Every structure is written in C-alpha cells, then in structure tokens.
Amino acid sequence: MSDRLFIFDTTLRDGEQVPGCQLNTVEKIEVAKALQELGVDVIEAGFPISSPGDFESVVEISKAVSWPTICALTRAVQKDIDVAAESLKYAKKGRIHTGIGTSFWHIHHKLNSNPEAIIERAIEAVKYAKKYVEDVEFYAEDAGRTENEYLARVIEAVIKAGATVVNIPDTTGYTMPHEYGEKIKYLVDNVKGIHKATISTHCHNDLGMATANTIAGVINGARQAEVTINGIGERAGNTSLEEVVMILKSRYAVLGIDTGINTKNIYRTSRLVSTLMNMPVQPNKAVVGRNAFAHSSGIHQDGVLKNRENYEIMDPNDVGINESAILLTARSGRAALKHRLELLGFELTKEKLDQVYEEFLKLADKKKDIRDDDVALLVGDATRQERRIKLDYLQVVTGKSLKPMASVRLDIAGEKFDATSAGNGPVDAAIKAVKQIIHRQVTIEEFLVQAITRGSDDIGKVHMQIDYNSTIYHGFGANTDIITASVEAFLDAVNKLPVAE
Ligand code: KIV
Ligand code: ZN
C-alpha cells in the first residue's frame, strides 16, 4: 500500500455550506489558488446543480487552477451528473463525486427505498458519470451508520462499475475512532477489487472525533482524506486539514505516511479562509489557533526559551508562524520579556530592562495579555523618564454635568511645579494646567487618539503635533488612561522644544 495520503479539500463545498460563510466567485478563486499553493491534491469546488453561483464557481475555479484535480459533487441523479460534467469542462483534471445514502435511516426514511434498489442506483450513477470523466468518486452517505456487510456490497458494486475513489463518510459524526478504523479495515479485507480504488475518509465533527476518525481510517488503509481548512463545515464541521497533515508530519516515525502539503502555507491559508468566510478561528484551535503556540505561564515560557521542545511538539515555523508567540502576561518572567524585546530589536542594558520590567508588571495587572505594540511603548516610556519635563502627578475630575478639572504636577529638571485648571473636557483641562507651568506659547495642531489592540482594557495611543514659533513638533504617548496618554504626548512634544533662555 502506498505511503502517500491524498488530500481532498472540501472547504469550498462542505465548508461553504455553513450559514454565513458563503463566498462569491472571486473569493472562491482566491481560496482555490491558495489551496493549490498549499499543495492539496483535489479541490471540491462546489455542487453545480444546487445553484447558478455554484455552477459558475466550478467553471471559474477549473480555469484558474492548474494542477490539482477539480471535483464537482452530485446526487445519484443523471441531471446532476450532466450539470457537473458541464461545469468541469475547463478542468485540466476533473472528477465527478456522486453518491447516495446507504444507512438504514437514509434508505428507508430519506430515500423511501430498499437496499437492493440503492445498489442499482449507485451502479447506474457511477456508470453514467464514467461517460463524462475517467475519475469518478462514489460516496456512501452516512456510511458511518451503515452496516459493514451491506456497505461492502455497495462498495464492491461501484468499484466494478468504475469508481476510482470510494468515499466512506461519517456524515453524522457518530462513529468512534476504533469503529471507523474497523470499518475501513473491513472494506480492505472483504471487498473484491478494493485495490483498484482509493478509499477516502470524510468525517464530521459532531462529537469532536473527526480528526481521530480520519487518522484511524488512514491507519487502516484509507489513502485519501477529505478535509477543510480550520475544520469548517456543516454543524460542528469537518476534519481539519491542518490537524491531519500535522499529525502525519509530527508522528511520521510511527505512521510512515506523507502528504504533498507545503505545511509552511498552512497558517496563511487558515487566515485567508477565516477572513473571507467571516469565521473566526477559536483561539485554542489546534495548529492554527491564536494560542496554539503561545505559552503564558512563566514556567512554560522559561522552558521554551531554554529549549523549544520542552513544551512544543511542532515547530511553529513548519506551519508558517514565524515565532513562537510567547504570550506575555502578569506571570511572565524577565527572561520572556527580554526575549520579546530582542525579537523586536531592542537591546536594553540590565538597568533599563529592570525599569521596563517593573512598568510591564504594572501594565500586566491592568491588561490581560501584552502584545508587541505594548512592549514597544513601554520601552518608549522608559526613554521618556530621561526627559527634562516629566509628568509626576495627574488628577482629573470629570463626568456628565460636571465641569472637568485637572490638577497636574510636573517635574522639571528635578524641581516640582503644581497647577490646576478647568477645561471643556478632561484633556483640555489637563493640557491647560500643563501650559500654566511651562509658560510656552504652543498650540495643538493635531490630536489623534487610537486604540492599539482591542477591548476596553486596551492601551490608548496618542499622537500630537504642536506648533511653536511656526515649527511643528511631534509627540507620542500611550497609556490605558487616554488622558494620561494625551498629557504624555503633549509633554513628549514640549520636551523637543528648544530650551528657553
Ligand atoms: O457528509 C457527507 O456525507 C457528505 C457527502 C455529500 C460526501 O458531505
Ligand atoms: Zn460532509
């Protein structure tokens, strides 16, 4: 048996069936091109009979993509197959994916049929599709709940009719990994002619077992896995591409099976799909979640810095994440902060690092996780401490129906000065109080406030331009309190003025 697993991506068909995830044709082409670069073997591009949009997408994706096989889904219905064949006319390699329900539920309660008639319809559909394309995949819908003996008869019949791939979907996500593995093994051992076709897995995640079932299927002889990016798909989703691929890569010594996936494109493709489909990736999602490589506890961070493999079983670079995103929190140690600063290009002396670390701990108490922007601003703050005019104290009283009042104390070259002022807002009051102390004729030309990341605990970043003697000076400030950030920005600019004679 081959040691190569074919990756059949159904993000644009099963994934796209999710309410709210619909893409237009241009977006689908973008995803299809990304899948091609990722190295998938088959792209299931749509269900052409279902809508003119799906039909057009299969046509356009067939034109846009050069080497992966383009697959179109049908029911075991001649009209569906005709339309699918038409949609694939530009495909360099086209596949028709036809099939029918084979479980007791589907045969009796959905199709109002009987097991023998279903086998006949399956054979007919495959033979009919064969008139158009050589590559015909047959799916036995709800194979997970189909009795193995009957499933083997169906599969044997469709292979005899010419199916090149036989798909064994666990449509309802009900099967357990040992059962799914046994099912595949049963087919390998009992279907005459099984070696003429590739067995495919197609698992849904209703009970969180999609990936485990897929791997069990592969261990027992399946050589195609049907997957989606980020595991998106009907209800709880499909098996996720990134999980299957990285399991095979990480556990190659045990499994000995490879894929043709360029794993370095995984993260980028995950982001693209998530953005275009408006489907956020859960932060703790395996392989591609925001926290998948983020170690927040001090002990873990220290361990990772000493040797990545202490806590990481995969190299984030292998999936296209450039650096193990060590999440900085109140529990992070000095070593983690120093490491992050170095990555950001800051080489600090021990004294400066101590100072930044102290500020970092204060910020971490106010803010859940600290990002690169925050760290860069802390370094900026430490530098500000060396300035001539420093903000020593600021108190603001403001609110609805209150006249805003600010009290300010500045430290100017070691001497303290106090002032109080009212204003038409808290920032205005604080700046007026500062102006009373500095005695310089400055006017604010631009005042820009921005949130850096998100959330109400975010840091506000202020950019100010002031005019002094017809020259513009820029100042920056950042703080979880935007009034403090504004005063800091103002003082940053004022510190750049020529020292008064
Ligand atoms: O889950 C399923 O059974 C399917 C088939 C149409 C392949 O998506
Ligand atoms: Zn499905």
How would you sum up the global shape?
A: elongated
**End-to-end gap:** 87 Å
For this structure, the CATH topology of the largest domain is: TIM Barrel
Mean pLDDT: 91
How many independent structural domains?
Answer: 3
Tell me the strand percentage band: 15-25%
Number of helices: 17
Proportion of helical residues? 25-40%
Second rung of CATH, namely the architecture of the largest domain: Alpha-Beta Barrel
How would you briefly describe this protein structure?
The protein is of the alpha/beta class and 501 residues long.
Task: Give a written overview of the molecule.
The protein is of the alpha/beta class and 501 residues long. It has three domains: 6-276, TIM Barrel; 294-384, no CATH class; 387-494, Alpha-isopropylmalate synthase LeuA, regulatory domain (Double Stranded RNA Binding Domain, 2-Layer Sandwich), CATH 3.30.160.270. The protein is 40% helix and 19% strand. It is built from 17 helices and 14 strands. The protein has helices at residues 25-38, 52-64, 78-87, 104-110, 115-130, 148-161, 177-190, 210-219, 241-250, 252-255, 266-276, 298-306, 334-343, 350-366, 372-384, 426-438, 482-494; strands spanning 6-9, 42-46, 69-73, 94-101, 135-141, 165-170, 198-203, 224-227, 389-397, 405-412, 415-422, 443-451, 460-468, 471-479. Strands 1-2-3-4-5-6-7-8 form an eight-stranded parallel β-barrel, surrounded by seven helices. It has a three-stranded antiparallel beta sheet with strand order 9-10-11. Helix 6 links the parallel strand 5 and strand 6 (165-170). The radius of gyration is 31 Å and the shape is elongated. The relative contact order is 0.07. The model has no long low-confidence stretch (mean pLDDT 91). It binds 3-methyl-2-oxobutanoic acid (KIV) and zinc ion (ZN). 3-methyl-2-oxobutanoic acid binds at residues 14, 139, 141, 167, 169, 171, 202, 204.
